[in-house]
Design brief:
Elements (H helix, E strand, L loop, with lengths): L1 H11 L2 E6 L4 E7 L6 H5 L7 E7 H17 L3 E7 L8 H13 L7 E6 L1 H13 L6 E5 L2 H7 L4 E6 L2 E8 L4 E5 L8 H18 L1 H15 L3 H21 L17 H10 L8 H18 L5 H13 L15 H10 L10 E4 L5 E4 L4 H11 L2
Parallel strand pairs: 2-9, 3-4, 3-5, 5-6, 6-9
Antiparallel strand pairs: 1-2, 7-8, 10-11
Helix pairs in contact: 4-5, 6-7, 6-9, 7-8, 7-9, 7-11, 8-9, 10-11, 10-13, 11-12, 11-14
This protein binds nicotinamide-adenine-dinucleotide and magnesium ion (MG).
């Protein structure tokens, strides 16, 4: 029993990852059962003992009571606002409705906004926090793997416009991020795999040891081993925090935050072609986009074939989508090319891409011949 107790104590001690930026610093706290301990974890961080929790119906049904009770334990008064789940809540009407509810009841400037949910809730609540009374303190409690490893770190908040995704937004850094890996137990496996693609991406961009760690531990992670999940979240957040610290507001055109788009130009084209209707999750599109980025890199002589094979083998080994032909939909090369030319990251109509010299060696380039991209798409099943 002592060993069991020790193991329990260990798993209950959260990891703290400090994020240091020019504008601010905060901790990403990573561990099990953090929602139940949110009162103790947040009391030292919040400027006053009052918060408005924003969540979605699905996450709210699972975790909202637990969070409200935990905050009440340390005397933090809360009220909660619940939006429908899914990408469609990241719209201007839902945003306006939330701000209106907050103002209607009256809000003090030092009241915090707490986002409880995935990236949709985090981006939406963060944008509400960044704009209401010119900025309310903000806390993220991400409940999807994607939001724990990616969207909750970096300070980008926002909503979609009818002209495209994430076109309305602001940078607003949180006071604190609580990444509770226990909450991932209720996440559908497909969502878990989609988030995992962004961890693999981090390794492929600039952390070869993280990619090697994924090769060893990916299967245990997808089987929800809590220690493995916590370690993956820590490594991926540490990677993103390093990139964000060097380029907080995405002002560098070449390396910096732009590298975080590895696999995303291809991925966005696949998502856009399906009309962002949920048939293909963002991380699934990224998973295919990663192999395409390596395939184009190999075609241009920038990257060894062996590295492309390593990436493909890893994704396929975990039953992640790795090729366009893995999807039950057909795509036309011309349609995918035209989406890529419309991508907001394209400049002056040139195809700008994140490619790789090898695993952990991503770079940005604007000299990618369209024909090379077309050939890679055809070879992949378009
Ligand atoms: P999401 O927030 O829609 O969550 C996915 C689904 O899982 C939803 O239906 C949600 O209700 C449900 N869910 C969430 N947590 C759950 C849990 N613990 N158990 C059971 N169900 C749960 O999607 P996401 O993948 O987390 O985030 C995608 C969004 O993140 C996109 O809008 C994207 O633009 C944004 N994003 C932002 C950044 C950034 O830097 N701000 C980075 C990457 C992605
Ligand atoms: Mg992404």
């Amino acid at each position: 029993t002592t060993r069991v107790m020790e193991a329990l104590a260990l798993s209950n001690r959260p990891l703290r990852l400090p994020v240091s930026l020019a504008s601010t610093r905060y901790d990403v706290v990573i561990g099990s059962d953090l929602i139940s301990r949110a009162g103790a974890l947040l009391a030292p961080v919040l400027p006053r003992k009052a918060a408005i929790i924003i969540t979605d119906e699905t996450v709210g049904a699972l975790y909202l009571n637990r969070l409200e009770e935990a905050l009440a334990q340390t005397g933090i008064a809360t009220r909660s606002l619940i939006v429908p789940p899914g990408e469609r809540s990241k719209n201007i009407d839902t945003y306006a409705g939330l701000v209106d509810s907050i103002l209607k009841e009256g809000v003090e400037r030092r009241t915090s906004i707490i986002a409880l949910g995935g990236g949709v809730v985090g981006d939406l609540a963060g944008f509400v926090a960044s704009t209401t009374l010119r900025g309310l303190p903000f806390v993220q409690i991400p409940t999807t793997l994607l939001s724990q490893v990616d969207s909750s770190v970096g300070g980008k908040t926002g909503i979609n416009s009818r002209w495209g995704k994430n076109l309305i937004g602001a940078f607003h850094q949180p006071l604190c991020v609580l990444a509770d890996v226990s909450a991932l137990a209720t996440l559908p496996r497909r969502e878990l795999m989609a988030g995992y693609a962004e961890i693999v991406k981090a390794g492929l961009i600039g952390d070869p040891e993280l990619f090697a760690w994924c090769e060893k531990n990916g299967a245990a992670l997808l089987d929800q081993d809590p220690e493995t999940l916590a370690e993956a979240v820590r490594q991926a957040c540490a990677f993103k925090a390093r990139v964000v610290a060097a380029d907080e507001r995405e002002e560098q055109k070449t390396d910096g935050r732009a590298l975080l788009n590895l696999g995303h130009t291809f991925g966005h084209a696949l998502e856009a072609e399906l009309g962002y209707d949920g048939r293909l999750l963002h991380g699934e599109a990224v998973s295919i986009g990663l192999t395409l980025a390596f395939a184009v890199s190999v075609r241009l002589g920038a990257c060894p074939q062996a590295d492309l094979e390593r990436v493909t083998r890893h994704l396929e080994g975990l039953n992640m989508p790795a090729h366009i032909r893995d999807l039950p939909y057909s795509f036309k090369v011309d349609d995918l090319m035209s989406h890529m030319l419309k991508d907001k990251k394209m400049q002056d109509g040139k195809l700008s891409f994140v490619l790789a010299h090898g695993i952990g060696q991503a770079f940005t380039t604007r000299d990618v011949p369209a024909q090379t991209v077309r050939d890679a798409l055809v070879a992949d099943g378009a």
